[in-house]
Amino acid sequence: MPMITEACKTGMLHLSKSFVYYPDHHANFHFEEKNVAGAGKAYFSSNAPCVVMRATNQAPLLWALNNRKCAEGAFVTFDADGCRLHIVEMKSKLTQGTWAKVLLQFNGMYLSALATARILGIESFTSVTCYIAYTEDAMNPDKSADMILIKPFVGVPNPVGGATEWEKERCLLPLNQAATIRKTQRDANNDANFGLV
After folding, report:
1. pTM of this prediction?
2. Phi and psi dihedrals of 159, rounded to 5?
3. Contact (CB, 8 A) for 164 and 96
4. Into how many domains does the chain fold?
5. Which domain holds residue 180?
6. Is the pLDDT at 38 greater than 50, yes or no?
7. Mind listing the pLDDT tens digit for each residue in 106-119?
8. What's the Cα-to-Cα distance from 72 to each of 28, 52, 109, 126, 131, rounded to whole Å?
9. Residue 93 belongs to a domain
10. Cα–Cα distances in Å, from 88 out to 41, 43, 126, 157, 193?
11. CB burial class (10 A; 0-12, 13-18, 19+) of residue 65?
12. Residue 15 vs residues 18, 22, 51, 52, 116: alpha-carbon distances, Å
């Protein structure tokens, strides 16, 4: 079983434990959506050592980013074949417009996690997985919707989009990093359990 390196342990000395920390080994850990409208938790567990990175109030961990959007958090697992990055976001009703915002949040968290990983002596990730927990899947336009209103204007960025990523369960993050998307619906308590990763 791979262990957290000395470089990583040294790097942790430069980071606030409020935002970056080691969860208890082999224990469940979670990320929390604190917005009252969508409050809930996303649970994970791992047999591998982990480092958890949390955002606060949707602000990225890296202050210099142009993209001010950020996911709930991320964590790195130290697996036999290298370090894997996991990015977590929670939503209530997931529309195409909301999904477009989620993709921006994944991008912001990826860049923040990448910068944090460098401080921890992590040079690259063997894989990146983005997790989305949602209450309601409203990604498909209503059959009664006027399709002309959904069509984007010429020369104007599409305010929605992301349907291809949703269907294929893959997205492209900054710096040409491909990521797998894992989706799950939240339970009656607004929580989601992604299980062992």
Report:
1. 0.88
2. -70, -15
3. no
4. 1
5. 6-196
6. yes
7. 999 999 999 999 99
8. 17, 11, 8, 22, 10
9. yes
10. 11, 10, 18, 26, 12
11. middle
12. 9, 12, 12, 12, 8
